[in-house]
Amino acid sequence: LPAASPPPLGCDDPESEAAAEAAVSYINGHSHHGYKFALNRIENIRVIPQGLNNDIIFLELDLLETTCHILSPTPLENCTVRSFTEHAVEGDCDIKLQKLNGQFSVLASKCHSHADSSEDVTKFCPDCPLLVSLNNTEVLKAVTAALNKHNSKTADAYLKLLEIGRAKIQYHPAHIVFVEFAVAATNCSAEEAKANVEACQLLPDNQSNFGFCTATMVILPSDNLEVNCQLYGHQPGVTYSPPAQATS
Amino acid sequence: PVAKRAVAEVAQHDKVPRPVGFVPPPPPPCPGKIRYFK
C-alpha cells in the first residue's frame, strides 16, 4: 500500500514561513525601485512533491511597503512598515519556489502593488495627506526645490535625483506637499556644480553613494521648505537601474 | 419563563468541562495570520 500523503501545509506552519521569508528576500533583492516590502500575510501555499527532498511550492503573499528605500542598507527586519494613515501601499505576489534538500530557490515571481483606497484613509483620518501621482506639478516643484536647497547648503558632493519614491499632499488645515526621493552623489562638489552642473556625472555604480531625502513644502498659509537628506555611503554590489532599463 | 430558562442553560453549558482527550479543531490552514493590518 502507498504511504499516506502528509497533511497539506498550513499558511502559518514554520515551513511556510521559511518559504515566504526566502520569497520576500528574493523580491526585495531583485527590485531596483521604490521601497522594501515586508510580509503581512501568507494568503495561500500549495506544495507539489517532485521526489525525495524536492518540492515545488506555490505561494501567494500579501506584502506591505516599509519606509526603507530599496537602496537603503538597513536590513528588512529593522524597517518600519508604513501605517494605514500614511496611505499604505500593498503588494500581492505569486511566487514559485523549489525546495531542494532544504534549500529554497525562487523559480518565478509576479507582483502587483497598489495603494489603499483614499476614501478609506480619509474616513479613518479626514485630514491625513493622501498619495498623489509622482509627476504631479506640485510634487515635481517640491522635489526640485528641496534638492536645490540641500545642494546649496552642503559642502559635500553634489547630489542628483535618482527617483521620486512617494508624494503626498494635504489640503486642510494647511496646504502641504510631502515628498520622498532617492539621490546619488556625483563627481562634483556642490561648489563645482555651480560653475557647470551639466558636467557633473553620477559616480559609477561600484562607487556610488546613494542617499534618500524627505522634504516638506508648506504652500499655505506661508511658504516654507524643509529638507533632510541622508547618504547611505558606499555599498558594494548595489546598483541602480534607470527606469528605461528596469525589468518588472 | 422561556427566555430566562434559555439563558440559564447557555450559562450552564459553558461550565461543562471538556472531556478528557478533547482536541480543539485546528485553525483553518489558510490564509495565515495578519502581521500588521489588513
Structure description:
The complex is a heterodimer of chains A (248) and B (38). Chain A is an alpha+beta fold and 248 residues long. Chain A has four helices and nine strands, in the order αββββαβαββαββ. Chain A has a five-stranded antiparallel beta sheet. Chain A has a four-stranded antiparallel beta sheet with strand order 1-2-3-4. In chain A, strand 3 and strand 4 (103-115) form a beta hairpin. Chain A is flat. Chain B has one helix and no strands. Chain B has one helix at 2-15. Chain B is elongated and about 35 Å long. Chains A and B meet through strand 1 of A and loops of B.
Summarize the structure.
The complex is a heterodimer of chains A (248) and B (38). In chain A, 19% of the residues lie in helices and 45% in strands.
Largest sheet of chain B: none
**Helix/sheet category of chain B:** mainly alpha
> Can you give the helix content of chain A as a percent range?
10-25%
What is the chain-wise order of helices and strands of chain A?
HEEEEHEHEEHEE
Radius of gyration of chain A: 22 Å
Q: Segments of chain A where pLDDT lies below 50 for 5+ residues?
A: 244-248
Number of strands of chain B: 0
What is the number of helical segments of chain B per DSSP (H or I, 4+ residues)?
A: 1
Count the beta strands of chain A.
9
The span between the termini of chain B is: 45 Å
The 3D shape of chain A can be described as: flat
- Side-by-side strand order of the widest sheet of chain A: 5-6-7-8-9
Name some characteristics of this structure:
heterodimer; A: 248 residues; alpha+beta; 9 strands; 19% helix; disordered C terminus; B: 38 residues; mainly alpha; 1 helix
